[in-house]
Design goal:
The structure is a homotrimer. The first copy, chain A, has about 350 residues and is α/β, with parallel strands linked by helices. The first copy, chain A, folds into two domains: about 5-160 and about 320-330, 3-Layer(aba) Sandwich (Rossmann fold); about 160-315, Aspartate/ornithine carbamoyltransferase (Rossmann fold, 3-Layer(aba) Sandwich). The first copy, chain A, has helices at about 1-10, 40-60, 80-90, 105-110, 115-120, 135-145, 160-175, 190-200, 220-230, 240-245, 265-270, 280-285, 310-330, and strands spanning about 70-75, 95-100, 125-130, 150-155, 180-185, 210, 235, 250, 290. The relative contact order of chain A is 0.16. The interface of B and C includes residues 61, 77, 82 and 317 of B.
Chain lengths: ~350, ~350, ~350
Amino acid sequence: MRADLATRVGAVAVDGGSFTPATPMGFRLHHVIEAQDFNRGMLDQLFRIAREMESVHEQGGNRCLTGKIMASLFYEESTRTRFSFESAMHKLGGSVISTENAKQFSSVSKGETLEDTIRILNGYADIIVLRHYESGSAKRAADISTVPIVNAGDGTGQHPTQAFLDLYTIEKELGHIDGITIAVVGDLANGRTVRSLCYLLSKYRSIRIRMVAPDVVKMRDDIKGYLARHDVVFSEETSLEDVAAEVDVLYQTRIQKERFGDREEDYEQARGVYVVTPEVMARMQRGAIVMHPLPRVDEIDVAVDDDPRAAYFRQAQNGLYIRMALLAACLGADIARA
Amino acid sequence: MRADLATRVGAVAVDGGSFTPATPMGFRLHHVIEAQDFNRGMLDQLFRIAREMESVHEQGGNRCLTGKIMASLFYEESTRTRFSFESAMHKLGGSVISTENAKQFSSVSKGETLEDTIRILNGYADIIVLRHYESGSAKRAADISTVPIVNAGDGTGQHPTQAFLDLYTIEKELGHIDGITIAVVGDLANGRTVRSLCYLLSKYRSIRIRMVAPDVVKMRDDIKGYLARHDVVFSEETSLEDVAAEVDVLYQTRIQKERFGDREEDYEQARGVYVVTPEVMARMQRGAIVMHPLPRVDEIDVAVDDDPRAAYFRQAQNGLYIRMALLAACLGADIARA
Amino acid sequence: MRADLATRVGAVAVDGGSFTPATPMGFRLHHVIEAQDFNRGMLDQLFRIAREMESVHEQGGNRCLTGKIMASLFYEESTRTRFSFESAMHKLGGSVISTENAKQFSSVSKGETLEDTIRILNGYADIIVLRHYESGSAKRAADISTVPIVNAGDGTGQHPTQAFLDLYTIEKELGHIDGITIAVVGDLANGRTVRSLCYLLSKYRSIRIRMVAPDVVKMRDDIKGYLARHDVVFSEETSLEDVAAEVDVLYQTRIQKERFGDREEDYEQARGVYVVTPEVMARMQRGAIVMHPLPRVDEIDVAVDDDPRAAYFRQAQNGLYIRMALLAACLGADIARA
């Protein structure tokens, strides 16, 4: 399985889980498809490079990707995620070609397959950031692409770079990931963010997860089964106040109206049940943090924003460093030289 | 009030209205929100830098903003304005992330506030050019942004960079602004261009304004009151021919069909009343000019385009220099060094 | 007529069809409007530069267009073509301002003419790549533009850069163009790709064209007349299998559903009639190639993709080199120096 991982994510795994210095950074990725593909050693490498990227960013960026072209191939709009990737590429001196309207030259409008589109883009770009509405698309693209594919979200499937930045934020804010207690709150049924995060957390030791969700959007059995098999302690709770008092991380998520279709009643019932208010903050420990993948609607009161434990805007900022690190790792950049 | 201005636009005002050389250019802006925030000293500084930018442009641009990222955050489409800003940024070596579809990651689609969007973008961009459909949005954004906000038009409110380029064009074409007589023609009720221009002209001496508008789109009382309070002489006229003979500047505007909604009749009545034709040009003085913020429909006859007094395409070109100057001033660039 | 050509495409034609070394590359274009404007000497020059661009690309691009700005002015979406041009510009160090939504600042939405739009863009961009829905638009733009216009497709008219890359592919794959036999297959009535290619092929010697099209989309008389006048041997055939065995190039095209409007029945009758299958490939000569402008739907079986004679993805890649060459030739770049 280790060998398989190495192939899929392109890491050169040698004895004991270390990586050969295939590149000046000592870490190389081929594709970024699923959070599960990354083991703990790889996450450590990624976070080390992300920390270096914070310095690069502070110094106004560098030119280590000059001459490289990134294609933003978005089959559905997600301006925030696109901006984060494009900003990361520019900060490293690279160029971008971009569409949020990829359906127009795809199977949908003229009958072209995703595979054909990717093959053609292989001639135009050095790396492809793909956002697609169908689960499994990123894997299909990676199977035939000659340049790295980075999954920027595929349907209800995965959004691995969000999961990486979430984990990176926890490590940066708390100093460690092992041993934490985390509450995941809100839409646990549809939120791919929380799903990916659960997969990654299971790679760490002594994790406890408290799940707090309205009845109609409770965590699904597949994830619960996965956590059980990986010795993660979890429980389903109903009182956000009680949970708030005992966690290191309170990870709030938006109830996603767009997932409810015409079940308006279910949506109205689900939203507003669990809101992070100053009262909830008062229950939280001094060193704990509140996270949110954003955008938020009203599930975190704006009165909370000024609390130093409100980490969600810092979390968004970390997305830039993680994406800079991923682009550099996929393209074999030499950060030091540039 | 001087102190307040300095805060809002970030100019470092010292004794007598001069500016401390806070930057290599000797002029620094924080945000660009409203035309009124700029006093005459600041306009002089801005125009001085714009003139330098003409040289920079002639020499093929420079790299004084290399490594900087501008976000074009357009909640409504305005490709011309966006292109002008993005071209300005590229000419100075900067990078751009861009959307004309910002509603998709905004309050409208998922319920996110403008404030949250701006806070997140603060992590991705060094400057944000904002176009929004709501009056006052740019001010709201500036209130919480850690990077400069440039207002590229907010609702029926302001479009300050257009006003600056208009004024810059007058100075460049005529050699001075004090003492001019200007006719503003067309849709004076809805055109924010003319409104912003009137605010700025009131900062100059001995300005005379002749207003020529169809009945349904006459100049509103708020502007007339403002002009009166600032000792600007103005009058409302009905004969474009008579007015043409006595002005230094004839500023024509489009009757904006989109402002009339279903009042099609009113629109039809308003358009075509005042058209700049070769006959009107024949009445104009030799040294006078015709301006227009563009796009035009038929309110200036194309037969006028070849007249050397037709300044509207030169005016559009000046938009590039003004925006280069504003970006440089907001980002503290060192033009000379680059 | 030679002089006229030189004017329209900007080549400096001197005695015997050679070109003065007006630029470091020895080849300069003003505009790229129609395939017919290019004579054989010009095509040779273009292909020579495209070959140089392959080396440039292999070495990761260069900076010969640094400081130059290309405007992608697309009045209809064509992400693939846009990406190809923008990637070419970036590979040469240039910058891009881009819209796929140009109708929004055009005659359609506010009544502005194409001419006015181009005049304004002349101030913002060093070269304009224009895609428009009306035949003849590119010519209209070139007539008033002070910067080069490159036609990226105008209505049912022309798509010259596609024709150049097609011809370049033939020369590269077969080693020559004179004397080839080519089958053009599919929608010959509406496909502007095939139309432009026929114009260009007529400039070469001893060309034979086999036309294979469903009844409802047969080749139109204008092209057949043109070929006849230029001594190109052509025939209309019905058996793809028979034709496959005798050609050097099998040029397949998509039946364009969008051209049929509500004539669904005609579309259904036309599609699926001529499909390139492994069986057809078995009939083809060892050194022959299959081309396709892409996207494809099902008119080439994916089982054919792995056949080394399947040249269509290499053909798409050649589009990058051709567009790099055209941009450099229009902007007078010095490839060697950069």
